Each structure stands twice: as structure tokens, then as C-alpha cells.
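Please check this protein record:
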Amino acid sequence: SSGINAEYGDADNSFYILDVISFKSHPVTDSEAEFRFYWGGTKFSEDVPLISTICKNNHYPMLWLPHFPCSRDGLSEGLSMLQHLDFKVDGVLFYHKMGHYVAGSTPLVGWLKPHMLNSLNNVDASLLVGVEEKEEELM
């Protein structure tokens, strides 16, 4: 059995995987976030390839959310991706890459609305052009 932290998307009846807690009964809660994201995505795609596909035994696809480094280039890539999604992005999660998995609130994970990213240093506000407009269109 495996444990994941995921959100359900009503718009497309899919689960979006945020983090992995265990895989095939092997706990990874004491592993760093950066490792969990890489290892979990790799293990699920290799060992459970149909997880992201609707089929007879899987009515709700499970999709790994992309992860980007918290750098100017990483944020730029992630923000660019936001503009091409067909659904409303409610916010962006920031994980401390060396943080272990903690259930509940932790200072090692932060949540910002896309428009709040303007206040981050070294983030070009022009990267957000279209994101807020797209959010307003979907409301």
C-alpha cells in the first residue's frame, strides 16, 4: 500500500499528487522533500504506469504536480506554466527542500496566491501577466 498527499480537481475528476508519504509500505516521511518529489514521481511512473490514465481499474487519474526550484529561473518556468493551464490555480506551494514530511501546519511549507508572488524579490512582475486575468475569467 502507498500513502500520498493529494488534492482532488473537480474540473477534470483527477487527483493531483503533492507529496508521497509511503510507497509499497515503505515510509518516506523522514526523507527530505526534494528526494520525496523525485523518488515518488519516479516510483509511481515506473511501478504504476497507469496511475495517470483513465482505464477499467482507474476511474480517477492521479497526476504529479510539477515541482520547480525556488530560484528566479525556477519561478519563471513555473509561472509560465500557470498561463497555459485550463483551470484556475488557487496558489503556489513552497516547500523547504530539506524538510521532512509533517502532517498539519509547518513553517517548512508556505502557500502564496499567484498575485502575491509580485512581492518576492527577483520575481519579474511581468511574468504574472495573464494569470490574474485568467483567474478573473474563470470566476
